Amino acid sequence: MSAAGRTGTVQGDAPDGTGTSPAPAAGATAGWTLAGLVIVVGLGWLVSLLTDLVPELTAGTAVGQVAESIEYPVYAIVLGFAGNAVLSLTGVRRRMAAAFRTELFIKVGLVLLGATINFAIVVRAAGPAVLQAILLITVVFAFTWWFAGLLGLDDRLRALLASALSICGVSAAVAAAGAVEAKKEQLAYTATLVIVFAVPSIFLLPWLAGLMGLPPAVTGAWIGGNIDTTAAVTAAGAVAGEQPLQIASIVKVTQNALLGIVAVLLTLYFAFRVAPAAGQENAGTGAGPVAGTRRLGDRRSLAMLWERFPKFVLGFLLASVVATVLAESLPADVLEPRLDAAKELQTWALTLAFVSIGLEFNASSIRESGWKPIVVFAAATLVNLVVGLGLALLLFRGFTF
154 to each of 7, 150, 158, 365, how far by Cα in Å? Predict the structure, then answer.
């Protein structure tokens, strides 16, 4: 591995958002970029087609039950990987790399996601949902960060894994990647683990809840607090029933609302602890992190903090505030079509992002990361299940609809 790869920035790339943008290969032209964009959009259209068509064609069969629960991120990442393999074999993938704009698509999708989240729900659910979200995020994030550090994982990968596991899957990993300037390979690896673990949970958690005889509210709280992706939470809640789905959605939305706070805290930590330590090591001083090297009020530190702060998080928060105000001031028949349009655009943007993640993915990142991230993800998932069940029982046992 090159020195540039070890420092987290590929040579010739510009740090921005969720990682680094690959520099186009020599000889890349606007024609190749356009061709790559056509492939991204074409695969995105195929994802949309498969999401609607597969459940229809397999309805009434054993495969149909599974197909109904498979959401578009699964198709998008699988097709992205398939496209990656084909383009790599034909030797043209690097020439098209400028079209695989994971960062742009994911940021647009996350800002639009904010328009569908009403922050007023956090206030209305100020009891058990908020308390569960705060406690569960804290415990799972802390355990994942500690265990990943125990196994010697890179701090940036630790941040991605901890955020994805404790908050809301890929969206949280993207926010964390922007805050800590993680490599795209690390984001792709984390996104893959999220999908691999989330899909079986759609069926496993409702089955376990039924086996244990959990009340509907406890079932919903357990599902909403443990499954990483919002789409998978919705699918699992639907499998469990209407009442579990309502509670699962409230818990998940509450966790999503804390995404911006975690991104800010990660930005602060990496700006004032990790970056200064790395700078000292690169300068050959041999010194470790020094408390107080940068003060919060220092002008250079504030400038660096603003530079590293993921700007799309502000858009996410602003969109949520606007949606909250509009929900209180506009009739439902006026507001709903506009929110539906924002949701449709969000789905398309995230579809293109997940396709691009697959197209950009470098298989060497798996070999480089090895088995340790998988062990971390599995161990933290188990902790999440146990702690989440305990909190759900404690906070939602007496909940009545």
Answer: 10, 11, 6, 13
Tabulate helix, strand, coil % of the chain (nearest 5).
75, 0, 20
Asked if residue 337 is part of any domain, the answer here is: yes
- 383 inside domain: yes
Angle, helix 230-240 to helix 216-226, in steps of 10 degrees: 160
Residue 104 CA to residue 88 CA, distance in Å, equals: 23
User: Would residue 1 count as lying in a domain?
Assistant: no
- Tell me the range of 139-148, 177-186, 368-377 where mean pLDDT is highest: 139-148
Q: How far is CA 236 from the centre of its chain?
A: 18
Report the distance separating Cα 97 and Cα 100, nearest Å: 5
- SS3 for 400? coil
CA 393/CA 383 separation, integer angstroms: 15
Q: Which of 113-122, 127-136, 283-292 has the highest mean pLDDT?
A: 127-136
Which residues lie closer than 8 Å to 162 by C-beta, 6 or more apart?
140, 141, 144, 145, 148, 176, 380
3-state secondary structure 242-284: HHHHHHHHHHHHHHHHCHHHHHHHHHHHHHHHHHHHHHHHHCC
Find the mean pLDDT for residues 128-144. 88
Write the DSSP string, 82-122.
HHHHHHHHHT-TGGGGGG--HHHHHHHHHHHHHTT--THHH
- How far from each other are the two terminal CA atoms of the chain, in whole angstroms? 57
Residue 329 has pLDDT above 70, yes or no: yes
Environment class of 231 (CB within 10 Å of its CB; exposed 0-12, middle 13-18, buried 19+): buried
Global confidence as pTM: 0.59
| DSSP letter assigned to residue 97 | G
Specify the number of domains making up the chain.
Answer: 1
In three-state secondary structure terms, 62 is: helix
Q: Which secondary structure element, helix H or strand E, spans residue 20, and what is its range?
A: strand 19-20
Q: Which residue has the tokens 């330590």?
A: 277
Domain containing 36 equals 25-396
**Among all chains, which residue has been given the structure tokens 């229809």?**
56
Asked whether residue 237 is domain-assigned, the answer is: yes
Is residue 352 within 8 A of residue 41, CB to CB? The reply is yes
